[in-house]
Design goal:
Radius of gyration: 17 Å
Distance between the termini: 32 Å
Number of domains: 1
CATH class: Alpha Beta
CATH topology: Cyclic Phosphodiesterase, Chain: A
Low-confidence stretches: none
Order of helices and strands: EHEEHEEEHEHEEE
Structural class: alpha+beta
CATH architecture: Alpha-Beta Complex
Largest sheet: 4 strands, antiparallel
Strand order of the largest sheet: 3-1-9-10
Mean pLDDT: 91
Number of helices: 4
């Protein structure tokens, strides 16, 4: 089964990002596969294909780990991934001022390692994927800023839980099922 840890977005934030997606759809000339609004989230740790035994180890380690208190999340702007070269993803940048989000990523990465899942080779870059360019191509941040200059307003919310999600891929796109919710301590 294909698993990942994520922070789901409040409905108001999801609606605002969906409006940005809709406006960009008419402005971005490239072929983009847009993420369905109900599936917008912040991926904390992609675990990939996991066996049932790995899932059990992940769940047992979750209950023994300390997590930070609820996090103040800000989504200040749009970004391209990677920032240089051929762009694969149009995303909303995610910031959290205390370092709690990065700490949570490291904890989840460690839990994955204890279940036999390799650490991710790239550094943690918190974001909300809005769409994927098919095929990837060079896009400058200034182009994206121009497309979105009148659309963007910084979004803020408090993240108070992390979800372990099972993703099933199909020709019509992924479907998600929440397997476990970790409530952040107050």
């Amino acid at each position: 089964m294909r698993l990942f840890f994520a922070i789901n977005l409040p409905d108001a934030v999801r609606r605002q990002l969906a409006e940005v997606q809709e406006a960009l759809r008419g402005r971005v000339p490239e072929k983009v596969s847009w993420v369905r609004p109900q599936q917008l989230h912040i991926t904390l740790k992609f675990l990939g294909e996991c066996e049932e035994q790995q899932l059990k180890r992940i769940e047992s380690h979750l209950s023994t780990r300390l997590f930070p208190p609820p996090l103040d999340i800000e989504i200040p702007s749009l970004m391209l991934i990677p920032p240089r070269g051929r762009t694969r993803v149009i995303a909303a940048e995610v910031r959290e001022p205390t370092g709690g989000l990065t700490c949570m990523y490291r904890t989840l990465d460690d839990i994955g390692a204890k279940a036999g899942i390799p650490a991710e080779p790239e550094r943690f870059l918190p974001h909300v994927t809005l769409g994927r360019l098919r095929p990837p191509r060079r896009v400058r941040q200034s182009e994206l800023d121009e497309y979105a200059s009148d659309l963007w307003e910084s979004l803020k919310f408090k993240a108070d839980k992390v979800e372990l999600i099972h993703s099933t891929l199909s020709s019509s796109g992924p479907s998600y099922k929440i397997l476990r919710i970790v409530t952040l301590p107050v």
